[in-house]
Amino acid sequence: MRISPTGALRQSGNLFAMALDVVRSLPRRPFQAREFIQQAWFVASVTILPTALVSIPFGAVIALQIGSLTRQLGAQSFSGAASVLAVLREASPIVTALLIAGAGGTAICADLGARKIRDEIDAMQVLGIDPIHRLVVPRVLASMVVAVLLNGLVSVVGVAGGYFFNVVLQHGTPGAYLASFTTLAQLSDLWAAEIKALVFGAIAAIVASYKGLTAQGGPKGVGDAVNQSVVITFMLLFVTNFVMTAVYFQVVPQRG
Amino acid sequence: MGVEICVEGLTKSFGHQVIWQDVSLTLPAGEVSVMLGPSGTGKSVFLKTLVGLLKPDRGSVKIAGRDITRLREHDLYEVRKLFGVLFQDGALFGSMNLYDNIAFPLREHTRKSESEIKRIVLEKMDMVGLIGAEGKLPGEISGGMRKRAGLARALVLDPEIILFDEPDSGLDPVRVAYLNQLIVDLNAQIDATFLIVTHDIASARQVPDNIGLLFRRELVMFGPREELLASDEPVVRQFLNGRMQGPIGMAEEKDAAQVEQELAQIDEGGPADALTPRLLPGAGIARPPRWEVIARREAERHGTGVTSA
């Protein structure tokens, strides 16, 4: 592959252009309900189990860290508050992002890439059907919806895991843990996390679709596209996460 | 009816590599044209440019009076409904069975009832000889069947223009002969404009009204079949006869001195072959006036053996 100075710029420009196309195609009728449901089911089925399995140890690690930290600081009564805050604000959107990009995005990218190199996408365009409207929009919406739901799942499993490790393994007091639940965290934290998940789902699906639809060079090209889509998605998600967190702290007043 | 395609000054390059430049030709409405060329001369790129999948650097492609290189995306999708394209491997949707594949354009673009869709789909499947394979997935059938299914799907919207990307690649000679007959029969039945991109000389000699030849980044020649088959142009003669002697080399091109020497050898070898008889629509197919004329001309030229049905 030849490296040109404008290459990266052109790629990001094309990616952004496709994101705009997706937004423009959103209100177009007929809405591809069938494809949307199939894709939502598909993305959910490849992400639910790994998400649950990842969020248990994730919640546990946070509980362990916070448990020992609060003991050192002599603030055991806040261990519940701190671990809920950590899970809800950061852990669950990040776990959701990793899984939706790593499991959902790769599956979308591989699927579209395989279709691209088999000329299916070209055939579809020749049949007068816009692949953005027919294939990408339902995938983006599906991934967004599933990301929001996954975020809820991670929060619940993460908090439950934290409770288990703090109370059962570190012999914390259940009452203190539960009582301090809402001393730091507030409802807007949950909303912010859900909005993050929504945006992450959209980014993961758009990048995966873009990379899939521009795959070329046979089966190896599809592999490369999947690889690049994961790397690009991760970079974008972590940057977006930082920006959204910074904005959140500016906009929403914090407790305490 | 068919629609005329008028290509003017078309140039396409990828990066610094020019694929072909200044291609100008007119595909007459309702006629069968073949675009020939050695491997790697951008025949498939040409085809994709005609349907607007690739944007040319310069030039225009006018279809029914509209330049598709300048159309907005939305209008482009409208114009594309005039096209049926048979891709190299059929380009069937891998997740759907043959029936759903062929019904796909109808379900997307028309409000026909399922029973009417079924009638049309089965009719087209019968046309390409695929009855009984409705429930098969594209991965389960042979390349030839995939091609025929792809053709059936290209036909369901009654296109005005049908483009074939190497319909004969990967098929055995008998299947190629059947497919050629199918193409001729189809042309007599639906009267659309056909463009076949191929490097199979036997098909190119038998099937089309017009032949074009792409070589060395240019359209060497485009014209009626008889004219090209009788042409003295070295590239055309070499390609249509499938010989090693001539300007086309294994890698790319040969040096001029060697070419002249080889051509001199051929010229000593006597006159060129007689004109290949043209393939005519099968016995059961009602021939429109255009094909009547062709059949009569063929009968005169080759005497007995070619009779009107």
UniProtKB/TrEMBL annotation, chain A:
Pfam family, one: MlaE
InterPro entries: Permease_MalE
Organism: Streptomyces tropicalis
Keywords assigned: Membrane, Transmembrane, Transmembrane helix
Protein name: ABC transporter permease
Transmembrane segments: 40-64, 94-114, 140-165, 190-210, 230-251
UniProtKB/TrEMBL annotation, chain B:
TM ranges: none
Transport found in the keyword field: yes
Domain of life: Bacteria
SMART domains per UniProt: AAA
Example of a GO MF term: ATP binding
Keyword terms of this UniProt record: ATP-binding, Nucleotide-binding, Transport
Record-annotated ABC transporter domain positions: 5-241
Entry annotated with the keyword ATP-binding: yes
InterPro entries: AAA+_ATPase, ABC_transporter-like_ATP-bd, ABC_transporter-like_CS, P-loop_NTPase
Protein name: ABC transporter ATP-binding protein
Native species: Streptomyces tropicalis
Source species taxonomy: Bacteria, Bacillati, Actinomycetota, Actinomycetes, Kitasatosporales
